[in-house]
Amino acid sequence: MKRKWGLLAGCLALVALIIGAVVWTQSRHTNVRTAPATHNRLTKQDVTATEVKVKPWGKLKHPLQLPILMYHSISTGNQLRVPKQQAVAELNYLKRHHYQTLTTTQAIRALTTNTVPQKKVVWVTLDDAYTDNQKLLPTLKRNHQHVTINVITGFTHKSDHLSLAQMQALKATGRVDFASHTVQHLDLNALTATQQKQELVASKQWLDQHLHQNTLLLCYPAGRANRTTHRLAKQAGYRVALTTTEGVAQLSQGRYNLSRLRITPGMNLTTFADLIRVTNS
Ligand SMILES: [Zn+2]
């Protein structure tokens, strides 16, 4: 009898041990399963958030042709000044026809990697940083568009040129970025290498410091530059530079020798549309 009870107790103990082992294993299993499940959920959310912010860019088969528009003052009076009404009509045209207006960073990325956020892209630039450029801000905000203003850093105290405070306010809107148009707007071709270097380096330093950025774009005064300028621009830390040579920009022109399209006063929308029309594929 005693032996029977002993055997039963032994069996019970064994069953308890097996049940315990099974429960323990299952609970471990469940824990292991829950951990990555939670992790996966978080990862998926992160990816979704990234996707909303950054659209994937498409690689082009053929070299990008980028229309870089060149404006100066938004006013009237001479062939360099485009009236506000015309400039606004042109920005509205770009919006209506689904052109994306690139930032400097985006334009450099597009040109140097031959990728685009979408097929129809333009880069709108305004030289000399006149105060009247501010007239375009309501349109830029309404259309969610972007322009790049090329600053003569030695002119920011002049009444018809943007002050630092005005530039900071424009930059804060996210609709405008700023690049170098040198310190004194001199013909770089007529300067010695040392003088050229001073114009390129000091203007970049001023913009970098005051606008808390790394200035990557240089725009040559009157479009004039030579091989020495190209070399010095690269050394100073600029990634690309713009000329006033008429044409659609392509990387084959050289990073420091990109063409632009001059927008003249009185140009009608049909001419404007023909000027910027390119086929990227
Ligand atoms: Zn200029």
Keywords:
eight-stranded parallel β-sheet, 8 helices, alpha/beta, Glyco_hydro/deAcase_b/a-brl, 281 residues, Polysacch_Deacetylase, binds zinc ion, two-stranded antiparallel sheet, 2 domains, Polysaccharide deacetylase family protein, TIM Barrel, hydrolase activity, acting on carbon-nitrogen (but not peptide) bonds, globular
Describe the SSE topology.
Blueprint: H1 2-53, E1 58-59, E2 68-71, H2 84-96, E3 100-101, H3 104-113, E4 115-116, E5 121-127, H4 137-143, E6 147-151, H5 164-172, E7 176-180, H6 193-211, E8 217-219, H7 227-236, E9 240-246, E10 258-262, H8 269-276
Helix pairs in contact: 6-7
This protein binds zinc ion.
Q: How many strands, which pairing sense, and closed or not: the largest β-sheet?
A: 8 strands, parallel
**CATH T-level topology of the largest domain:** TIM Barrel
The CATH class designation of the largest domain is Alpha Beta
Rg (CA only): 30 Å
**Helicity, as a percent range:** 40-55%
Order of helices and strands: HEEHEHEEHEHEHEHEEH
| Level-2 CATH architecture of the largest domain | Alpha-Beta Barrel
Distance between the termini: 93 Å
Relevant CATH superfamily of the largest domain: Glycoside hydrolase/deacetylase
Count of helical segments?
8
Shape: globular
Q: Low-confidence segments, ≥5 residues, pLDDT <50? A: 27-45
- Ligand kinds: zinc ion
SSE-based structural type: alpha/beta
Strand % is 5-15%
